Amino acid sequence: MKLKTLLLFLFISSAYAQNQSEAEKLIGEGVELHDKGDYNGAIEKYSKALEVDKDNLLALSEKAMSLNSAGKYVESIDVSKHAILTHPNEDLKNVYVNYANALDHLKKTDEALTIYQEGIQKYPNYYQLHFNKGICYTNNNRYGEAILCFQKALLINPKHAGSLNAIGILEMGSHRIPAILAFSRFLIVEPQTTRSKKNLENIKKLLSQGIQQNGEKSITININSNMLSDSSDVKKENDFSQVDLILSMASGLDFDKKNAKKTEVENFIRKFEVICSALQETKNGNFGFYWENLAPYFIEMKNKKFIEAFAYIAYVDSDSEDVGKWHKKNQSELDKFYNWSKDYNWKN
């Protein structure tokens, strides 16, 4: 009797292992199809995986994501609910992201925010939950709440390009310096992409904001009233009014004869050095996310003499001959810069 029981156990164990192996193979094929944009093909693979290994968590999670990508939001919600119900004690971070994202797509904002928050309570250090919650707020024009979510995501993962991009876009209308810092950091973590090209253009527009040449010897500098500090002595959170004013003065010098002869990158370096010097000079007494997290990074960049390397990284996709020549001659400087950036202590 004991022998029969043992043989039965071994048979069941062997069958389970085979099913699990077959499911893993199907899931791998599904992931490949998803990455190629064949979401329906991926869904079919995940469904087959679940036929041979019922309630496989990875298959459920990947299927929910592909259903989202295919626009099948109600089905994605059903799969996500099932995964949470059948795997209450396992890692469900991405399941919560897929679940809430599907609700957001269906314009069920309050329900989506509830699920994001439920996920955050269980996985407070998963930056994607904070980021996607921020996207949900953005989709509903709740920009202040969105920015706070993106900031939380960056506190967890300072290399998250999506959060840097979102902050830059949301801040560029009324907070020039934070936007420049966010876009600049973005160019370091995600160079040579469509988004990086767009964000370099955003930085260039922000650097020259309010500057207009009216004639050979006449320049107008318009200061945005939102950038000016009030007359009270009370410090405001993330107040960069002094840095902003100094940048405007520096940008007005673009039309000076000695600067007019410089390359575009050289003038970029000049203005960025002004920004970083102003950050260092005015940091005392200032506070807020950007002062405490982004400003120290760029101040150290200046002190380490890496602004030139950063500038040529920012312009790497330009067609300028001088940029190409610099990159060919200065690989060691690029290596030093990236090693410094990689090892930078974000808890300063």
Radius of gyration: 26 Å
What would the principal axes of the Cα set say about the shape?
elongated
- Overall structural class, as computed from helix and strand content, comes to mainly alpha
Q: Could you report the average pLDDT, rounded to the nearest whole number?
A: 89
In terms of quaternary structure, the protein is single chain
Distance N to C terminus:
67 Å
Unreliable runs, pLDDT <50, ≥5 residues?
Answer: 6-13
Q: Considering DSSP H and I runs of 4 or more, what fraction of the residues is helical?
A: over 70%
**Structure annotation, total helices:** 18
Range of strand content: under 5%
H/E element string? HHHHHHHHHHHEEHHHHHHH
Strand order of the largest sheet: 1-2
Report the biggest beta sheet as strand number plus sense, adding barrel if it closes: 2 strands, antiparallel
Number of strands: 2
Pfam families: TPR_1 (PF00515), TPR_11 (PF13414), TPR_6 (PF13174)
InterPro entries: TPR-like_helical_dom_sf, TPR_rpt, Ycf3/AcsC/BcsC/TPR_MFPF
Keywords: Repeat, Signal, TPR repeat
Task: Please explain how this structure is put together.
InterPro entries: TPR-like_helical_dom_sf, TPR_rpt, Ycf3/AcsC/BcsC/TPR_MFPF. Keywords: Repeat, Signal, TPR repeat. By secondary structure, the chain is mostly helical. About 2% of the residues have low confidence. The chain has a domain of 113 residues. It contains 18 helices and 2 strands.
